[in-house]
Amino acid sequence: MSAYHDRDGFIWMDGGFVPWREAKVHVLTHALHYASSVFEGERAYGGRIFRSHDHSLRLHHSATELGFVIPWTAAQIDAIKQEVLAKSGLADAYIRPLAWRGSEQMGVSAQNNTIHLAVAAWEWGAYYGDAKLKGAKLDIAKWKRPSPETIPCTAKAAGLYMICTLSKHAAEAKGCSDAIMMDYRGYVAEATGANVFFVQDGAIHTPLPDCFLNGLTRQTVIAMLRERGVEVVERHIEPGEMEGFQQCFLTGTAAEVTPVAEIGPYRFEVGQMTRDMVSAYEALVRKG
Ligand code: PMP
Fold first, then answer.
1. Which one of 21, 38, 157, 272 is most buried, by most CB atoms within 10 A?
2. Exposure on the CB side of residue 36, measured as CA atoms within 13 A
3. 35: which residues sit within 8 A by CB, 6+ positions away?
4. Are 152 and 115 in contact (CB under 8 A)?
5. Whole-model pTM above 0.85?
6. pLDDT above 80: residue 1
7. Of 137, 156, 174, 287, catalytic
8. Dihedral through CA 172, CA 174, CA 176, CA 181, nearest 10?
9. Nearest atom within ligand 1 for CA of residue 161
10. Domains of the chain, CATH where assigned
């Protein structure tokens, strides 16, 4: 596949479609210098975007957390995404809405900068390659999810991914496909772009999302588990507890449900409960 800037097709930008290669911003764009941008990651299955409106609402929430207002409503963004998907000609696709502060003011303050919105769609297969079958191998990141007093932790904002990229690069250098990050207190938090779940004696344990993104996939999977009568415990998890967990999986729009085989020194089996959730999630998203 060619680089992202060099593809055929169209990207929706600030009110209409522009040819893919012309969807550009100026180098003196506030977002590029000060990370004043928020985004979403969504997947369409069979021509329908899963939880589209919830993603649009989260985009608005993220913008609010960064102190700006997107000049399109969530309902308008829903319609734009559907248009982008239709124009892409793809049935299964990844959708990326992005909102950012423009270039009127350069400096930390950017009170009067125009807020821009773009939406692109492309084909994106399994996020962790063949891990869906044999389980992903994860590193333990040296970077910690920061305290809610230091970042707007419920926003899906570009700036919060700086330590995710660093962690993922370090993991890849060790032959891992991702890293699990602890939080500022030392509890298990999440992967760099996905939430984490553990199976212990038939029950599910998952970190309390009190300083990181409470993923839509996480919420979907918890509801599915509870519907099945599985006990789900949301709590603070010490890293050492991973020794006693039998199974582990990640959830995220891109990751979907991906089994985990290793986290640092800890080993997990790709067991029945995990495999059931992989296929149940796959069935749900295709049903809508
Ligand atoms: N945490 C982080 C840091 C993420 O980037 C994502 C992906 N958006 C998630 C969790 C999972 O969120 P969702 O299930 O809404 O995609």
1. 38
2. 28
3. 157, 158, 159, 162
4. no
5. yes
6. no
7. 156
8. -80
9. 3
10. 10-122 (3.30.470.10), 131-285 (3.20.10.10)
